[in-house]
Amino acid sequence: MIGQTISHYRIVIKLGGTCKVRVRALDWSHGAPRPRWALLVQAVALVLVALVPKAQAQGLTTPPAAAAPSSSSSPADRVYRNGVIFTADARNRTAEALAIRDGRIIFVGSNQGVAPFVGAATASVDLKGRFVMPGLVDGHMHPLEAGAQLLKCSLNYESLTIAEMQRRIQTCLDHSASEDANAWLEVVSWFQESMRPAGVKTSRSTLDALKTTRPILVTSSFGHTALANTRALALAKITASTPDPIGGKIWRDDHGEPTGLLEDSAYAVFSDLLPKPTDAEYVAAATAALKAMSRQGITSFLDAAAPSESLYAFTVVRRAGGLTARAHFAPVIEPKEAGDLPGAVARVVAFAKQYDDGAIARSPGITVRNAKLFLDGVIAAPALTGAVREPYLMNAGTAEKPHWVPGPSRGPAVYFSADALATVLVELGRAGIDPHMHADGDGAVHAALDGTEALRKALPIADIRPAIAHDEIVEPADFPRYKLLGAIPVLSFQWEKPAGDTLGLTNYFGLARMKILEPAGLLAAAGARIAFGSDWPVDKLDEWFALKVGVTRTNAPSAPPEYGGRLGDDPGLSREAVLRAATIDAAYELHADEATGSIEVGKFADLIVLDRNPLEVPAEEIAKIQVLETVVGGNIVYEASAVPGAR
Q1: Is residue 53 scored above 50 in pLDDT?
Q2: What is the 3-state secondary structure (H, E, C) of 271-338?
Q3: CA–CA separation, 2 vs 14, rounded Å?
C-alpha cells in the first residue's frame, strides 16, 4: 500500500487484494476556493484510477485468492483446508483453504497452495467440505438493551390475545410477589403488531385488570411504543392536559384522557422513574449480548443508538479482555437539540475522544465514528408514526362494510426540519462522523436523501458514508438516489415476509404501496449498496432466519396459513447478495471494509465455520444453519463443539 497525506487530502493506492485508488477529503470548508496543489492531487488521482484497471488486466497485481510471495517465509498459526470458503471479495470467489498468522489472513487459495504454510506448530483444520465465510457484520442493533432484556419479564415476541398477554404478565407479577408494592414491573418484547385477533386494541385497562397495585410499563419489540397502566401514568404525571412532546404521541380516548399507549419520546419520561441498573448489571447485559452474538457468528456490530451506559459497559468488558466482537457505536443526536447542532456534534466528538480505540486492530476494540438521528417513528399499525409521502388510508365506512379512503394523516412531520437535517449532516461530515438515520416511511427516506444531497454538495469528495436504516417503504423515484448519493440502506431482512406487522398495513397503505413494501430487491436493482442490520432486540437475534427471508421473502413454514406466500412484488436478493450485505457491505457501512468483512490476504481473520452451505442448500434451510466456530482476529471466540480434524 502506498499512502501520502497532503493537508486535507489522502491518496491511497492499494495493490494486491482488491485494487483501489481512493482520494479522501477529510475536511473542506464549503465554498472556499481550492488551492492549485489540491487540483493537482485530484488530477494525479484520476490518472491513477485510469491506470490501475490496465495494470490489473496485464496481471501486475496479486489476485485476492492467492498469497503474497513473502507470506511463505514462516508457518501459519492456523490453516483451514478441504472446505468451501466464500471470500466475499469483489468477485465472490470461493477457495478450498486459508492460512492465518498473527490474526491476519496470509493465504487464500487451493489445498495444494496452503501446504507450504503448515509447520510443526501450525493448527490444521480439515473442514471436510464445510462452509467458511467472513464473520457476520450486523450494521444496526441495540446490544445493551438486548442483553438487559434477556433478564426481564418477556412476552417473547409472540402473537398473543389480550387474555394471553395478561396471563403472561400476571405470571411475572406472581413470581416477584415479594417485591415492594411500589416496585416497577418492566415487560419487554411485546409484538404489538401481531396481537390476535387482528386490529384488537390495548389500553391501560388491559393492565389495570391484573392483580397488582404496582406500576407496569410494557414496551413494544419495535422500540417505539409503550403501554402503561394507570398507576404508571399517574407517577409519570401524564394527564389529559399533558401535551404531545416533540417526536412523540400520547394516545387519547374520546374524552381526551390518555389511553396508556405512548409513542416514541412520549414515554421518555419513564426513564427517570424506572430503577436504574447498576454498573455491574450494565456490564452483565453487555456480556450476555456478546455471548449471544458469538453463537450467531457476529464478529462486528453497530450499536445504532448508543447511550453512554452502552459505551461504558462495553469498554469495561474490553478492558477485561472479554470483547468478542468489534464494537461500533452511534450516539444519538435528538431532535430537541436542533437549536444547537454544532454543540450536539461536539458532544458526539467528545464521546469519540473518550472511547474510540483508534485504528482497527487484531483484538476487538471500540469505535465511535457514527451518529444516530431519528427522522420518524414506525409505519406499522396501529402506531402509524412513520412519515409517508401519501396519506395513510382510513375507514370511511363501518366495521361491517369498510371503505378505505385517503385520510388526513401522513404521520408526524419529519423530526428534523430540512435545514436542520442538512446542517447537522454537514457538521457531522466535517467532523468525520458517518450519519446513521432512522427513516421508516418514504417521507422520512426522502428527507434523509435530501439531507444526504446537501452533505454531498457541501463536502463533494469527503469519504462520509451516510446510512439510512429501515427504509420500509420508499418512493420509486427515490430508488436510484441511493447509488447517486452514496447512501446505504441498512435493512432488517426478517421483516420482508407476510406477518402481522406487514400485512397489518394493507388497509392503511392500499395494494399499490403494499407491492413495494420492504424493497430490498428493488433497491439492489437500482444499484444501492445494501447492508444488513438485525435491529435486535426489535426481533429475536436470529441472523440466519433473517438471511433466509432476504432470499425467499417468505415466513417460516410453521407460520399460520394467513402468513403464507411471498411478500409483495419485490424479487428479493440473491444468496450471494444477502451474504455480502451481512459481511463486506455492512463492513463498508462501518468504514471497516479495509480491515475486515471479506476473506482476503492482509485482512484480519474474522470468519465463521457453518454446518451447511447457504449457497447450495434449499433456500428454506438457510434458516436452520448452525455456526460451528466463530473466529475474531484469528482467535476462536465461540465453538459449538470441537471442529473435527484440528490438531
Answers
A1: no
A2: HHCCCCCCHHHHHHHHHHHHHHHHHHCEEEEEECCCCHHHHHHHHHHHHCCCCCCEEEECCECCHHHH
A3: 7
Contact criterion met (CB below 8 Å) for 509 and 473 = yes
The three three-digit cell numbers of residue 64, written as one number: 485476492
Specify whether 199 is located in the same domain as 78: no
Cell output for 293? 452474538
3-state secondary structure of 630: strand
| Mean pLDDT of all residues in 593-597 | 98
The whole-angstrom separation of Cα 201 and Cα 204 is 10
Nearest to 104 by CA among 128, 68, 61: 68
Angle 605-608-614 (CA atoms, 0-180°, nearest 5)? 135
Domains in the chain: how many in total?
3
What φ, ψ does residue 350 adopt, rounded to 5°? -65, -40
Q: How many CA atoms lie within 13 A of 2 on its CB side?
A: 7
Residues 30 and 112 in one domain: no
Distance CA 626, CA 451 (A): 41
Residue 148 and residue 100 share a domain? no
DSSP 515: T
Give 79-109 as a DSSP string: EEESSEEE--STT--EESEEEEETTEEEEEE
CB 88 within 8 A of CB 134: yes
Alpha helices in 128-210 (DSSP H): 143-149, 162-175, 204-208
Mean pLDDT of the chain: 88
* Residue 209 domain-assigned (yes or no): yes
Residues 178 and 214 in one domain: yes
Range of the domain at 103: 69-132
Compute the distance between CA of residue 150 and CA of residue 184 in angstroms, rounded to an integer. Answer: 17
Residues 168, 107: one domain?
no
* Tens-place pLDDT, residues 477-495: 999 999 999 999 999 999 9
Window from 167-171, 175-179, 263-267, 370-374 with minimum mean pLDDT: 175-179
Contacts of 590 (CB under 8 A, 6+ apart): 137, 139, 300, 302, 328, 367, 369, 370
- For the full predicted model, state whether its pTM sits above 0.90: no
> If we measure between CA atoms, which residue out of 498, 491, 535 comes closest to residue 514?
498
Overall residue count recorded for the chain in this entry: 647
Residues 82 and 104 in one domain: yes
- Coil vs helix vs strand at 259: strand
**Amino acid occupying residue 169:** I
Distances (CA, A) of 154 to 129, 204, 492, 540, 570: 40, 18, 22, 12, 33
Same-domain pairing of 126 and 152: no
The identity of residue 5, as a single letter, is T
Q: Which residues contact 494 (CB under 8 A, 6 or more apart)?
A: 534, 539, 542, 545, 546, 549
Assigned C-alpha cell, 124: 490444521
Cell of 452: 444526504
Residue in this structure with the C-alpha cell 388526513, named with its chain if needed: 408
Given a contact cutoff of 8 angstroms between Cβ atoms, the answer to whether 528 and 483 are in contact is yes
- On whether both 151 and 268 belong to a single domain, the answer is yes
Instruction: State how far the Cα of 142 lies from the Cα of 304, in Å rounded to an integer.
Output: 6
CATH of the domain at 207: 3.10.310.70
